[in-house]
TrEMBL record:
Gene Ontology CC entries for this record: membrane
Highest taxon of source: Eukaryota
Subcellular location field: Membrane
Name by which UniProt lists this protein: Uncharacterized protein
Topological category with respect to the lipid bilayer: Multi-pass membrane protein
Main subcellular location of this protein, as a coarse class: membrane
Keywords for this protein: Membrane, Transmembrane, Transmembrane helix
Stored InterPro entries: MFS_trans_sf, POT_fam
Keyword Calcium: no
Pfam family, one: PTR2
Transmembrane segments: 20-42, 63-83, 103-122, 143-167
Gene3D superfamilies xref list: MFS general substrate transporter like domains
GO terms of molecular function: transmembrane transporter activity
Source organism: Vitis vinifera
Amino acid sequence: MLSLFVEQGAAMDRTFLHFQVPPASMTVFDIVSTSIFTVFYDKLFIPLYLKLTKKEPKTLTELQRIGIGLAIAVVAMLASGLVEQQRLKYSDGSKKEMSSLSIFWQTPQYILVGVSGAFVYVAQMEFFTSQTPDGLKSLGIGLSMSSSAFGSYICSIILGLVMKITTRNGKPGWVPPNLNDSHLDRFFFLSAALSMLNLGLFVVCSNRYKCISLEER
Protein backbone atom coordinates (compact mmCIF):
# COMPACT_ATOMS: atom_id res chain seq x y z
CA MET A 1 0.00 0.00 0.00
CA LEU A 2 2.89 2.37 0.71
CA SER A 3 3.93 2.08 -2.94
CA LEU A 4 0.61 3.67 -3.90
CA PHE A 5 1.27 6.42 -1.38
CA VAL A 6 4.56 7.09 -3.18
CA GLU A 7 2.81 7.22 -6.57
CA GLN A 8 0.23 9.58 -5.11
CA GLY A 9 2.97 11.80 -3.71
CA ALA A 10 4.78 11.88 -7.06
CA ALA A 11 1.67 13.49 -8.57
CA MET A 12 1.53 16.25 -5.94
CA ASP A 13 3.39 19.51 -5.42
CA ARG A 14 6.72 18.38 -3.95
CA THR A 15 8.22 21.82 -3.51
CA PHE A 16 9.66 22.59 -0.07
CA LEU A 17 11.64 25.83 0.24
CA HIS A 18 14.08 25.59 -2.69
CA PHE A 19 14.18 21.87 -3.40
CA GLN A 20 11.93 19.01 -4.48
CA VAL A 21 10.89 16.43 -1.87
CA PRO A 22 11.39 12.84 -3.10
CA PRO A 23 8.00 11.08 -2.78
CA ALA A 24 9.56 8.01 -1.15
CA SER A 25 11.10 10.18 1.58
CA MET A 26 7.63 10.75 3.04
CA THR A 27 7.85 7.24 4.51
CA VAL A 28 10.01 8.83 7.19
CA PHE A 29 6.76 9.93 8.87
CA ASP A 30 5.68 6.29 8.99
CA ILE A 31 8.99 5.14 10.49
CA VAL A 32 9.28 8.01 12.97
CA SER A 33 5.68 7.71 14.18
CA THR A 34 6.13 3.96 14.69
CA SER A 35 9.34 4.50 16.65
CA ILE A 36 7.97 7.32 18.79
CA PHE A 37 4.73 5.53 19.61
CA THR A 38 6.54 2.29 20.45
CA VAL A 39 8.88 4.13 22.83
CA PHE A 40 6.17 6.14 24.58
CA TYR A 41 3.48 3.44 24.58
CA ASP A 42 4.13 2.33 28.17
CA LYS A 43 4.89 5.82 29.47
CA LEU A 44 2.02 7.76 27.92
CA PHE A 45 -0.64 5.56 26.35
CA ILE A 46 -1.02 2.98 29.12
CA PRO A 47 -1.27 5.57 31.97
CA LEU A 48 -3.88 7.46 29.92
CA TYR A 49 -5.77 4.22 29.28
CA LEU A 50 -5.78 3.38 33.00
CA LYS A 51 -6.97 6.86 33.89
CA LEU A 52 -9.85 6.75 31.42
CA THR A 53 -11.05 3.18 31.98
CA LYS A 54 -10.30 2.59 35.69
CA LYS A 55 -11.04 -1.09 35.28
CA GLU A 56 -9.37 -4.43 34.75
CA PRO A 57 -7.42 -5.59 32.85
CA LYS A 58 -4.89 -2.94 33.72
CA THR A 59 -3.20 -3.26 30.36
CA LEU A 60 -4.47 -4.02 26.91
CA THR A 61 -4.10 -7.60 25.76
CA GLU A 62 -2.23 -8.45 22.58
CA LEU A 63 -5.48 -9.11 20.72
CA GLN A 64 -6.99 -5.81 21.86
CA ARG A 65 -3.92 -3.92 20.65
CA ILE A 66 -4.06 -5.68 17.29
CA GLY A 67 -7.74 -4.72 17.00
CA ILE A 68 -6.94 -1.07 17.73
CA GLY A 69 -4.20 -1.14 15.11
CA LEU A 70 -6.55 -2.58 12.51
CA ALA A 71 -9.12 0.12 13.31
CA ILE A 72 -6.48 2.82 12.85
CA ALA A 73 -5.57 1.25 9.50
CA VAL A 74 -9.17 1.79 8.37
CA VAL A 75 -8.88 5.48 9.26
CA ALA A 76 -5.57 5.67 7.39
CA MET A 77 -7.18 4.36 4.21
CA LEU A 78 -10.08 6.80 4.54
CA ALA A 79 -7.60 9.67 5.01
CA SER A 80 -5.70 8.53 1.91
CA GLY A 81 -8.90 8.54 -0.13
CA LEU A 82 -9.83 12.03 1.03
CA VAL A 83 -6.35 13.33 0.20
CA GLU A 84 -6.61 11.80 -3.26
CA GLN A 85 -9.95 13.51 -3.84
CA GLN A 86 -8.35 16.84 -2.96
CA ARG A 87 -5.33 16.06 -5.14
CA LEU A 88 -7.65 15.53 -8.12
CA LYS A 89 -9.54 18.70 -7.24
CA TYR A 90 -6.32 20.74 -7.42
CA SER A 91 -5.07 19.14 -10.65
CA ASP A 92 -5.62 20.97 -13.92
CA GLY A 93 -7.29 17.96 -15.54
CA SER A 94 -4.66 17.72 -18.29
CA LYS A 95 -2.18 14.99 -19.06
CA LYS A 96 0.22 16.75 -16.72
CA GLU A 97 0.23 14.63 -13.58
CA MET A 98 1.33 17.30 -11.13
CA SER A 99 -1.30 18.69 -8.75
CA SER A 100 -0.93 21.95 -6.87
CA LEU A 101 -1.80 20.18 -3.60
CA SER A 102 1.26 19.94 -1.34
CA ILE A 103 2.74 16.51 -0.75
CA PHE A 104 2.75 17.23 2.98
CA TRP A 105 -1.00 16.61 3.01
CA GLN A 106 0.06 12.97 2.98
CA THR A 107 1.61 13.32 6.43
CA PRO A 108 -1.52 12.23 8.41
CA GLN A 109 -1.96 9.01 6.42
CA TYR A 110 1.70 8.07 6.90
CA ILE A 111 1.47 8.79 10.64
CA LEU A 112 -1.72 6.74 10.94
CA VAL A 113 -0.09 3.82 9.14
CA GLY A 114 2.90 4.09 11.48
CA VAL A 115 0.78 4.12 14.63
CA SER A 116 -1.27 1.23 13.27
CA GLY A 117 1.91 -0.74 12.70
CA ALA A 118 3.13 0.04 16.21
CA PHE A 119 -0.04 -1.49 17.61
CA VAL A 120 -0.29 -4.46 15.27
CA TYR A 121 3.23 -5.71 14.68
CA VAL A 122 4.52 -5.49 18.25
CA ALA A 123 1.36 -7.06 19.70
CA GLN A 124 1.32 -9.68 16.96
CA MET A 125 4.89 -10.71 17.76
CA GLU A 126 4.09 -10.89 21.48
CA PHE A 127 0.95 -12.91 20.81
CA PHE A 128 2.63 -15.54 18.66
CA THR A 129 5.55 -15.95 21.07
CA SER A 130 3.36 -16.06 24.19
CA GLN A 131 1.02 -18.69 22.74
CA THR A 132 3.73 -21.12 21.64
CA PRO A 133 5.90 -23.35 23.87
CA ASP A 134 9.63 -22.68 24.25
CA GLY A 135 10.56 -25.20 21.58
CA LEU A 136 8.36 -23.44 19.02
CA LYS A 137 9.17 -19.79 19.76
CA SER A 138 11.01 -19.41 16.47
CA LEU A 139 7.99 -20.82 14.65
CA GLY A 140 5.78 -18.25 16.37
CA ILE A 141 8.06 -15.44 15.23
CA GLY A 142 8.06 -16.87 11.72
CA LEU A 143 4.27 -16.98 11.66
CA SER A 144 4.14 -13.36 12.76
CA MET A 145 6.46 -12.24 9.98
CA SER A 146 4.84 -14.47 7.35
CA SER A 147 1.43 -12.98 8.06
CA SER A 148 2.77 -9.55 7.08
CA ALA A 149 4.27 -10.96 3.88
CA PHE A 150 1.01 -12.75 3.12
CA GLY A 151 -0.84 -9.45 3.50
CA SER A 152 1.45 -7.82 0.92
CA TYR A 153 0.72 -10.59 -1.58
CA ILE A 154 -3.03 -10.25 -0.97
CA CYS A 155 -2.82 -6.49 -1.56
CA SER A 156 -1.03 -7.08 -4.88
CA ILE A 157 -3.66 -9.61 -5.93
CA ILE A 158 -6.50 -7.23 -5.05
CA LEU A 159 -4.85 -4.41 -7.00
CA GLY A 160 -4.44 -6.70 -10.01
CA LEU A 161 -8.07 -7.77 -9.87
CA VAL A 162 -9.27 -4.19 -9.52
CA MET A 163 -7.22 -3.09 -12.54
CA LYS A 164 -8.46 -6.04 -14.60
CA ILE A 165 -12.08 -5.19 -13.82
CA THR A 166 -11.83 -1.40 -14.13
CA THR A 167 -9.87 -1.38 -17.42
CA ARG A 168 -12.62 -3.13 -19.37
CA ASN A 169 -14.05 -1.46 -22.49
CA GLY A 170 -10.94 0.67 -22.93
CA LYS A 171 -11.29 2.50 -19.63
CA PRO A 172 -8.07 3.74 -17.93
CA GLY A 173 -8.88 1.93 -14.70
CA TRP A 174 -8.60 3.06 -11.11
CA VAL A 175 -4.79 3.16 -10.99
CA PRO A 176 -3.47 4.09 -14.47
CA PRO A 177 0.00 5.57 -15.17
CA ASN A 178 -1.48 9.08 -15.21
CA LEU A 179 -3.20 9.47 -11.85
CA ASN A 180 -5.19 12.45 -13.13
CA ASP A 181 -7.20 9.93 -15.16
CA SER A 182 -7.54 7.60 -12.19
CA HIS A 183 -9.90 6.82 -9.38
CA LEU A 184 -7.21 6.03 -6.84
CA ASP A 185 -9.53 7.47 -4.20
CA ARG A 186 -12.00 4.66 -4.92
CA PHE A 187 -9.26 2.08 -4.46
CA PHE A 188 -8.35 3.60 -1.09
CA PHE A 189 -12.00 3.57 -0.04
CA LEU A 190 -12.29 -0.04 -1.21
CA SER A 191 -9.22 -0.82 0.91
CA ALA A 192 -10.90 0.88 3.87
CA ALA A 193 -14.02 -1.25 3.37
CA LEU A 194 -11.96 -4.45 3.14
CA SER A 195 -9.98 -3.40 6.20
CA MET A 196 -13.24 -2.87 8.06
CA LEU A 197 -14.37 -6.35 7.03
CA ASN A 198 -11.04 -7.74 8.19
CA LEU A 199 -11.47 -5.95 11.52
CA GLY A 200 -14.94 -7.43 11.95
CA LEU A 201 -13.69 -10.95 11.28
CA PHE A 202 -10.80 -10.38 13.66
CA VAL A 203 -13.14 -9.25 16.44
CA VAL A 204 -15.30 -12.35 15.99
CA CYS A 205 -12.32 -14.71 16.01
CA SER A 206 -10.49 -12.97 18.88
CA ASN A 207 -13.61 -13.06 21.08
CA ARG A 208 -13.82 -16.81 20.59
CA TYR A 209 -10.13 -17.45 21.10
CA LYS A 210 -9.10 -18.63 24.56
CA CYS A 211 -5.58 -17.56 25.45
CA ILE A 212 -3.46 -20.25 27.06
CA SER A 213 -1.03 -19.73 29.92
CA LEU A 214 2.06 -21.81 29.25
CA GLU A 215 3.47 -20.95 32.68
CA GLU A 216 0.67 -22.87 34.38
CA ARG A 217 1.46 -26.04 32.48
